Amino acid sequence: MKLQRDQILNGDLRTLLFRFSIPSIIGMGISALYNLIDTIFVGNGVGPIAIAALTIVFPIQIIMLAIGLMIGVGSASIISRGLGKGDEGLAAKTVGNAVIVNIILNAFLMVIALIFIDDILKFFGASANVMPYARDYLSIILIGFVFFSLSLAANHIIRAEGRPRAAIYPMVIGAVLNIILDPIFIFVFKMGVRGVAFATIISQIVSVLYIVLYLYFGKSIFRPKKSMFKIDPWLIKNIFKIGFPSFLTAITDSIIFLIFNRAILYYGNDTYLAIAGITIRVMDIIVMPIIGISHGFSTIASFNYGAKFYTRVKKILREAVLWTGLIAITGFIATMFFPRFLLRIFTDNTQIINNGIVPMRIIVIFLPLMGFLIVGGTLFQAIGKPVPALIINFSRQVIFLLPAIFILPIFYGLNGVFMSWPVSDFLSFIVTIVFIIIEIRIINKRINLITEKA
Question: What gap in Å lies between CA 332 and CA 326, rounded to an integer?
Answer without folding.
Answer: 10
